[in-house]
Description:
The protein has strands at about 1-5, 10-15, 25-30, 35-45, 50-60, 60-70, 75-85, 85-95, 100-115, 115-125, 130-135, 145-150, 155-165, 170-180, 185-195, 195-205, 215-220. By secondary structure, it is mainly beta. The protein has a 17-stranded antiparallel β-sheet, with no helix packed on it. A hairpin with a 2-residue loop joins strand 15 (about 185-195) and strand 16 (about 195-205). It is globular.
Amino acid sequence: MWEQCTSTIIYCSMSKLTPNLRFIATTFTFTELVPSTKTIVSFKLPDFNSGKLDIQYFHNHATLTSAVALTQTPTVDLTATIGTPTFVIGAEAGYEQSSGRFTKYNAGISVNKPDSSASIILGDKGDTIKASFIHHLDESKKTAAVGEITRRFSLNENTFTVGGSYAVDSLTVVKAKLNNHGKLGAVLQHEILPKSLVTVSSELETNALDKTPKFGLALALKP
Length: 223
């Protein structure tokens, strides 16, 4: 059910019971309690430790979101993004109150142009830095070339990856990549229904051809 009062919309949804009738998943969404915000409260009955509070703030050039686990020892996740269509900078962090430690902190910047984009991401609590670049080779953006460099400080390891993608048609995309460790990967993705994808993937160790290649199949359905 839903109820609208002035500029505030309250939406409540309850999922169907599980086959064993173990819990009811419930979500309350409050829109515009404060201008440009959305507040979401979710929990599963009768498990009161499953509660979660999400607060989202949207602006033309910035977004700020926070998620708090409603438990006796809550964890807090924060994300912030600011920028324009051509330049974006963002960061995220997670804090666990019980241990007094940050569970994660990452940051990144991205520069976008009509035919290319580049990004630098600092992740894994500062242990990994990744720089990537993608360039579209035609105006229709059917073909693209990709390059990526990853540095993992704790292992003193560098990984260089090159790859590309090609849109066979409006529904089918083929992607491939190869890194300096000899790992070759390929993906075939097809949109069987609007927003619903079937993906076939494979991975091969070119430096160890005696190993059995890996294959995968995934199906993602969206209403």
